[in-house]
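ok posting inputs for the flavin mononucleotide job
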Amino acid sequence: MPKPPKIILGVTGSIAAYKAVELLRLMQRKGWDVWVVMTECATQYVGPLTFRALSLHPVPTGFYASMDPEGYTHLGLTEQAAVMVVAPCSANTMARLAHGLAEDVLSAAALSMDGPLLIAPAMNVKMWMNPATQENAATLARRGATIVPPGCGALACGATGAGRLAKLVDIIAAVENILPAG
Ligand SMILES: Cc1cc2nc3c(=O)[nH]c(=O)nc-3n(C[C@H](O)[C@H](O)[C@H](O)COP(=O)(O)O)c2cc1C
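and the output
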């Protein structure tokens, strides 16, 4: 039996963070071994315990300055990871990733990831259309990241336009495209 691919699921402070729970389940249904890492802000939207219980793995969260030194887990986390998926990816985290910042465990994990990175942004339409965000997405794409663009429609903030987290099946399909066959 081949080992299931290790997938890192990064969850950030977007109102769409609750959808990451279902994304985790869909990934597990594919037979993937999913490890979750969260920003501090994401824990305001969904509790790490939910991901801990479902993934059966520890869930590192937050900023290094406030972490137990024993918890410096970003390097171990990404070791042998097949793909790192950041979904939903906030505008803030996308900026961190585009600029190579590593103050929190999620962005440090992304920086230490030598395999493929997949980013599914979710945000208000004005935030998504802002040239800063567009440039950050383009920078990451130029470096080889796969961007699964947000969908259009009614947004949680009341606006209408592009910004909804892509359909979960489309995120799964994008991961499958990246994973080596077999
Ligand atoms: C109710 C609420 C919903 C939010 N939803 C989003 C969102 O969908 N996308 C986004 O980029 N920012 C959103 N924000 C702002 C982020 O939470 C904020 O930029 C935060 O610093 C992101 O931190 P992180 O990238 O470290 O997770 C929201 C803020 C609030 C109060």
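notes: The pocket of flavin mononucleotide is lined by residues 12-16, 39, 41-42, 90-93, 122-123, 127 (CB under 6 Å). The beta strands are 6-11, 33-38, 81-89, 117-121, 146-147, 151-154, 160-164.
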